Amino acid sequence: MNKAHRISGTKLEDRIAAETEAGRESLRVWRNIWRNMTGEQRIAKAFQLTEEVRQVMRAGIRSRNPEASEAQIQHLYVNQLLAAHGTSLEHIKHQQKEDRTR
Fold first, then answer.
1. d(CA 88, CA 45)
2. Are the beta carbons of 24 and 18 closer than 8 angstroms?
3. Which residues neighbour 82 within 8 Å (Cβ) at sequence distance 6 or greater?
4. Looking at residue 102, what DSSP letter applies?
5. In percent, how much of the chain has pLDDT > 90?
6. Residues 71, 81: contact at Cβ < 8 Å?
């Protein structure tokens, strides 16, 4: 597990779940389900969850930008993803332009 996903040696989801009995039980059930899945089932679940996160992100962008076109929504979505990795479309385009002039 990536160190960024751990806080004080404990996974973030463990710390959140530990706050309530329901959280602890939910995490226990989820881990049991995950442990009993085949590799193929885990990959399928990962793709499903990824798609659900994309839909939620786009819905949030749409609700904050109700007049935006689908192309604008896509642009904002990609920028939000890139921002999570410390960059932006504008930065990438600038770098590409610099690379072409070298």
1. 29
2. yes
3. 88, 89, 91, 92
4. -
5. 58
6. no
